[in-house]
Amino acid sequence: MSYSEKLIDHYQHPKNVGTLDKSKTNVGTGLVGAPECGDVMRLQIEVDEATGLISDAKFKTFGCGSAIASSSLATEWLKGKTVDQALAIDNMDIVEELNLPPVKIHCSVLAEDAIKAAINDYRVKNGMPELELEGKKH
Ligand code: FES
Fold this sequence. Notes:
CATH class: Alpha Beta
Order of helices and strands: HEEEHHHH
Pfam families: NifU_N
Mean pLDDT: 95
Keywords: Iron, Iron-sulfur, Metal-binding
Radius of gyration: 14 Å
Protein name: Iron-sulfur cluster assembly scaffold protein IscU
Bound molecules: FE2/S2 (inorganic) cluster
Family: Belongs to the NifU family.
Distance between the termini: 20 Å
CATH architecture: Alpha-Beta Complex
Number of strands: 3
Structural class: alpha+beta
Low-confidence stretches: none
Shape: globular
InterPro entries: ISCU, NIF_FeS_clus_asmbl_NifU_N
Number of domains: 1
CATH topology: Sufe protein. Chain: A
Largest sheet: 3 strands, antiparallel
């Protein structure tokens, strides 16, 4: 199996590894696990309340290289987006950008799930109703 250079780069030099203060009301935290492999991803967003834009995003992934690369890429994409734009990030965008092989598609689903879970946490903290998320097939 050959991996793309972008994937290897995100895996070897992941961007935005870390933790945001989840006690802050403008920080949303998503923690999700992949049933097929037990890998776990935590992804956080910080929303600038003045502009409504995501000003920071961090992740910690205990999982495979593709999951690490997917979450690294996702945090890069999240910064500067509105929460609604962030909701539109689809795992297949990640698959395409990193050229993930079919057996690694669920790793990108994990990243999409983590984004959505972080957004939901942010929404609930700010008095908005939780979004009904249709579970994607891993
Ligand atoms: Fe399961 Fe990558 S092998 S997240």
